[in-house]
Amino acid sequence: MTSARTRERLIGRLREQGIRDEQTLAALSAIPRHLFVDEALASRAYEDTALPIGHGQTISQPYIVARMTAALRASGPLERVLEIGTGSGYQAAVLARLAGHLYTVERIAGLVRAARQRFQMLRLANISVRHADGCEGWPEEAPFDAIIVTAAARTVPTTLFSQLKEGGRLVVPVGGDGQELLLYRRRGTAVSFERLEAVNFVPLLPGGIV
Ligand code: SAH
User: Does the pTM exceed 0.85?
Assistant: First the structure.
């Protein structure tokens, strides 16, 4: 079922799980997640679970998408936002509802192509997609108010910190088998962070595109 009612049930669950930011919830409610997965999985698109999107990758669990989005919204402006790990494009589409412009980088060509088609179909005109190694960020478009990494980094590429504005935030899952979602903030040359929660993302793979 991909009806509005099924979608609203998911929003209700996210609210119960502690997502309080109405704008974040409205953005998730506005983006049809079933269009970001294979037709065969569309009936499961409004379950609060990660789902396979091919190439050994996954579309994140809606709760995690909401949590990361709300954390970025609560901590400052979202005029220019960079995402590393486009995947299906779902997180980018949700953030684009709340951002001035959303830049997103993906290393797998097939995923870039599919995501671009979805953004066109949904007329999300404030998203730019690049097929590149996200560990390099997007230097030509930097600096950003916020950066979101949707793959787990063993160590956060320092290049990404250098592409943040003063006061800019970076949300990223860090670790290998056990991962934590961290929210960094840049102040001058210093970087502070807070821990958000335990998570389980596919790895950020440095070096090279496919
Ligand atoms: N945000 C996505 C989920 C991403 S899954 C969504 O909403 O669907 C993680 C993605 O990060 C995968 O597509 C993977 O190919 C990508 N990725 C991993 N390492 C990367 C890198 N170095 N540069 C760019 N993308 C990378």
Answer: yes
